[in-house]
Backbone:
């Protein structure tokens, strides 16, 4: 069943965040990740405005977990440590 990694991001250091973006892009390419949303215009319908939203599609939850735990994405996570505050989770699709 399809799965999605959803991230809500507050960038705290835009310059350092660019390094994270570079490494995360390489990781997504290495794992053939389909990017559905990566930033972009938002229209809030209820609640608070998100700063930045990312949605990645995977064939299943196992593939999403493999991506998150990969060496390639680990490099990106390390680069992001002081560049952003992130809430990230995997959701199983229907």
Residues:
């Amino acid at each position: 069943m399809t799965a999605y990694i959803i991230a809500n991001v507050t960038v705290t250091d835009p310059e350092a965040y660019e390094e994270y973006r570079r490494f995360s892009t390489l990781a997504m390419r290495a794992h053939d990740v389909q990017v559905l949303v990566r930033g972009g215009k938002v229209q809030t319908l209820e609640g608070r405005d998100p700063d930045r939203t990312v949605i990645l599609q995977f064939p299943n939850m196992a593939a999403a977990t493999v991506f998150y735990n990969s060496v390639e994405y680990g490099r990106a996570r390390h680069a992001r440590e002081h560049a952003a505050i992130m809430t990230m989770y995997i959701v199983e699709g229907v």
Notes: The chain has one domain: 3-41+50-92. The helical segments are 14-30, 61-69, 71-80.
